[in-house]
Amino acid sequence: MKKILLLITIILSTSTLFAYDFIHPMGGRAAAMGGSSVASQGLWALQNNPAGTANLEKISLGLYYENRWMLPETAYKCGAFALPTKFGTLGVSFNQFGSSKYNENKFGLAYAKDFGRYLQIGLQLDYLLLKIGNEYGSFRAVTFELGIQSQVTDRLTLGTYIFNPVNFSFEQTLNHEKIPIVFRFGLAYKFTKDFVGQCEIEKNTDREGVSLRGGLEYEAVRNLYIRAGVQTNPGILSFGLGYAIRFVQINVAGQLHNQLGASLQVGMIFSIGK
Amino acid sequence: MKRLVLIILSLLAVSFAKAQIAVDTLSTEALNQLLIEQVERLAEDSDDDADFEELLDNYIFFSENPVNINSDEVMQLVELRLLSVFQYEELQKYRRYYGDFMFVDELEMVEGFDEQTLAIIKPVICIEKDKSKDKLNLKNMGRYGKHQIVGRYEQILEKQQGYAPIDDSSLLAKPNSRYLGSPQKYQLKYTYNYRNKFRAGFVLEKDAGEMFFTDKVSDTIQKLLGKNYRKGFDFVGFHLYAKDIGIVKAAVLGDYQLSFGQGLTLWSGMSFGKAGAGSSVMKQGRGITPKGSASEYSFMRGAAVTLGGGPFSGTVFYSNRWIDANVSVADSLDEAELVSSLQETGYHRTIGELQDRHAIRQQVVGGHLAFAIAHFEVGYTAHHTWLSTPLQLKPSHYNQFYFQGQKLTNQGIDFKYVKGKFAVFGEASMSYNPDTTAFQTTPRPAFAGLLGITVKPAGYLNFTMLYRDYGKTYQNLLGNAFGEGSRNQGQRGIYLGVEAAPAPYWNILAYADHFQFTWLTSQVNAPSRGHDYYLRISHSFNRRTQAYLQFRSKTKMKNSTDAFVFSHYPIFYTKNAVRFNINYQIGHDFHFSNKAEYAHYRNDDGTNEHGYFLCQDIAYKPEDKPFSLTFRYAIFDAKDYNARIYAYENDVLYSFSVPALYGKGMRFYLLGKVKLFNSLTLYARIGRTIYSDRDEIGSGLTLIEGNHKTDLKVEMIWKM
């Protein structure tokens, strides 16, 4: 009993320092480009800014694993599926952070629609599940996320993304802990046909300060992409490669943090369709 | 011939562009953007709830009553800083060579009129060829005159401490612990305008907390207030204004503002000060202007007239106005009354505020003489103020040279020379206070002066330099010249500003201002110094997409708050801020905007404070429908007031809000506009701030128990 009380005290006393990790840039491309992803398109946009899936042409399925700090306890696992239809793109996604002792799970149901070239809007309903050990049980919450993208010129795409805009909380927890609001916006700029730069700013209400992210991508050989990026707060340098063959895309990335060391990311996307 | 072809080609290009995009919406956007930036900077500079309404009334006025570009009225655009003096010169040159403008788009031919300028001024100009409408007679006035009624209601929906119920005895024990009135604010404004030549209007206002017709207070309080007991509209003002009738250049009866020269001698009302862009630190006095707004501080009430002929013009004015002040009986033997401070807020909500209401009478008489030829202008201004009760401030070191006593005389000479790519301007002013104080036993005149130069060596480059030296004993109750802070007293400084367009679609605006206070100021126990640096880089990706990046760093001295030192000596404090802003239009109807701002403040103990702000704005303004909607979602995180963020918000017409956000939380608002009939427009706005780091908001009378604060505004505009 004493032990449980102690544990509860520790959890409670650290709860103000605690940050949830439901929202994290997913996909090998984003990981290699310093986490910048709010103005990019493709399947992983389901996790990063659902508006980016509005123009998806193929039925796609993706799997992603991030070995954060090379610790299985802080790994991300992620899966996504998107189905383009006449009325817009439908998507489901799942991601998990943590291990069996503690994990955060997010299930999403997304819909994205294209309103001409200038405007794409995406909406995702989320079901969040927080599992702490065996004795402490699990906590559930529902929230949503919204995204906008706009290709304002041939070169420039702007994007905005908000997770949990109305600040829902885990009602069953002792402190009715707030789920963080994550707000990011940024741009992607196509310098040339094969050279893209991205940057964005993100505010997560669970964290001090803001995070700035930027990345570059160069298509060195046809279908082979070289990427690099920087992120602040936490300060991370990242690098990566991407290769696309007919229906498979493979993206790998490595990230370096000064104190915490390296992280590795691997993602695959399978797509079928014209 | 080449020129003709060029003109035709450009005109074609212009009309083609017009067909493609909605020029109108774009242009008002550009003007709005300009105002937003200026108001934001003004809010940052003024440190308190400044009343922008009056200042911006003029801009809205001209967007509804455009000036004729083929007349001298264009000067008013220079006065409003929408055009630079150089552009004005070029415009007049063009008209001298080619005659009157036939189309507004012809302006593109004038040197120095870039796309940005055109976008800004298009909504406030017109071309009027029919001179017959100009004749001032009753028939024309009835036919072409415009009436407008604006009614507005606003309220904070949460209950504030000042409105909580209280019984009489507790209220009498602590008389300023409650507002006597209701939490609603009402304003009613009527204006009539006949082609900017004849204007009339009145304004009625009741601020939140002031007593309205339906509010009740007990007899004891009523007795306590005596003649200051007052219900209904707290502020009532009117004006009658006419201009250009024979030799009468302008005449006004009622409430008005005066502005001459560089504002050092006489500039009642507000001005943009440092907030203006580089070249516009040179002020353009507007002479007499009617005051239609409900701002309750700093204006003239009485009559004024400007007569002119040839190069000469002269103005005389008289103002007689009751102002709020804290009056106390200084000596119980002879019961001499003294004023310990002037109240400048215009609020009369508590017993204390009501007791100070209209406590003393301020009379001002004065005049201005001007002589203007082609490129040169010189003016002489003099005015004399006297108060019905002498002002005697609570003695302190910092305020010993502030105005005290009963009478004050100011005189000044201003000049301006603008030719080609060069302008030089300045003003010298003198004040004389006949009353002696403990510190100044023999009355002596005091001096202040400023001198500035603007050069435009090339079309894309504009450079301004301004030097000011305001004596530490210089006093003026009606001045508002360029400077750091609101007082033109005890200050020296040099300002350098540059505006440049280094490449197409790129603009740079930068300034540096170094200043020195030659005497102590409030909370600064020694003469001090500081500097203010500003840089803004803006870029247009295309006609629909503009972005800018802005840096600002301001260092000032303030007393150290270190508890362990015996004497509080001043030390340097720096506030830095970076902002990124992007506006883009999607299709015809959607306007999006993102803003990110970071503010940093360094404390004297070496600790740092950080403030962050991010927002998304969405405006839906369909061209062919009678309504529009504007929405903002923002989050902010600034632990301390020192790292606060000022964020301009769209508001109902004629109203402006720039809340200072600090703490941690989010804010959103929704603004709707609907045109019910051709003549009737309705606005409504609801905004809410939700804090995640506190359970009560504000303090004292404005305290709200709870973590959210909601503001509501409804406005009705009726035009005929």
* Secondary structure tally: strands of chain A: 14
Helix residue percentage of chain A: under 10%
The major β-sheet of chain A equals: 14 strands, antiparallel, barrel
Number of domains of chain A: 1
Relative strand content of chain A = over 45%
What oligomeric assembly is this protein in?
heterodimer
Provide tags for this entry.
heterodimer; A: 274 residues; mainly beta; Porin; 14-stranded antiparallel barrel; globular; B: 720 residues; alpha+beta; 24-stranded antiparallel β-barrel; two-stranded parallel sheet; 10 helices; 15% helix
Topology:
The complex is a heterodimer of chains A (274) and B (720).
Chain A: H1 2-14, H2 28-32, H3 45-48, E1 59-67, E2 76-85, E3 88-98, E4 102-114, E5 120-132, E6 138-151, E7 156-163, E8 182-192, E9 195-204, E10 210-221, E11 224-231, E12 236-245, E13 248-257, E14 261-272
Antiparallel strand pairs in A: 1-2, 1-14, 2-3, 3-4, 4-5, 5-6, 6-7, 7-8, 8-9, 9-10, 10-11, 11-12, 12-13, 13-14
Chain B: H1 2-20, H2 23-46, H3 52-64, E1 67-68, H4 75-79, H5 85-98, H6 115-121, E2 125-126, H7 138-144, E3 146-156, H8 168-173, E4 185-194, E5 198-206, H9 219-225, E6 235-245, E7 248-259, E8 287-290, E9 300-309, E10 312-323, E11 325-331, E12 336-342, H10 351-356, E13 360-373, E14 376-391, E15 405-419, E16 422-432, E17 446-458, E18 461-470, E19 491-500, E20 506-517, E21 528-542, E22 545-559, E23 570-586, E24 590-602, E25 608-620, E26 627-638, E27 645-646, E28 660-661, E29 663-675, E30 680-691, E31 696-697, E32 704-705, E33 708-719
Parallel strand pairs in B: 1-2
Antiparallel strand pairs in B: 3-4, 3-33, 4-5, 5-6, 6-7, 7-8, 7-9, 9-10, 10-13, 11-12, 13-14, 14-15, 15-16, 16-17, 17-18, 18-19, 19-20, 20-21, 21-22, 22-23, 23-24, 24-25, 25-26, 26-29, 27-28, 29-30, 30-33, 31-32
Helix pairs in contact in B: 2-6
